[in-house]
Specification:
Elements: E1 4-8, H1 13-24, E2 28-33, H2 36-49, E3 55-59, H3 65-79, E4 84-87, H4 102-130, E5 133-138, H5 151-171, E6 176-183, H6 189-192, H7 196-205, H8 214-225, E7 236-239
Parallel strand pairs: 1-2, 1-4, 2-3, 4-5, 5-6, 6-7
Length: 253
Amino acid sequence: MAKTVVITGGVSGMGLSASKLFLSKGWNVMIADFNKELGEKVYKELSSKYSKKQVAFQQTDVSNATSVTDLKTKTSQLFGKVDSVINNAGIFTKGALHEVAEDAWDRIMAIDVKSVYLMTKAFVPDMIEQKAGTIVNTASISGLTGDYNMAAYNAAKGALVNLVRAMALDYGKYGIRVNNINPGPTMTPMFKANPQSVIDTFKKASPLGKLAEPDDIARVMYFLASDESNPITGENIPVSAGFEIYSGQPVQK
């Protein structure tokens, strides 16, 4: 029997790569995203390549409890039990802390952090009953380290970095594993919209001289969601081309 995964933020970038990878591995995939127009386009493309019985799209506001409950109901109707949840939806905002507007702070906390709470409330009870399941959250190396001009984003991703440990401790006895993937700068369509000079600067900052691709992130998502990663739980896994490994100290001659 095919396994089922729910992927939030699944219509572009890392989420789209994950949606395609899980489908290629024979999983049923429920794609959840706020962008209805793009979601329907992606669904049409993927359902023609795979099967309408294997993939579905649900417009979802992951910061809204009713919307997440509707996602859970639709997923259960179409696919039955859920084996994995990929909490990939997220947003970004710039600014030192005093520069961040209150509504911008509330929004990033709602979409990047509260969404994990709501998705867990909706999907974990069934995982507890079936005594199995995996949850993968998209955190960031910005939750592991500090960045200039990114206070709200650092705070949101930092919350996920510790939340994953609490979740792993609470749900391990039910056979549920919870892990974070922590990407660095990644060559998503949004990042590639930067001027080439900016992209080149980021590449030079990596010890590998390159940036991760969305497919690189998707492969680690699949690894953490599947039985291949048993018994890994409660971990933050950087996939960053080495961005988080440098202490910042100058070279000593």
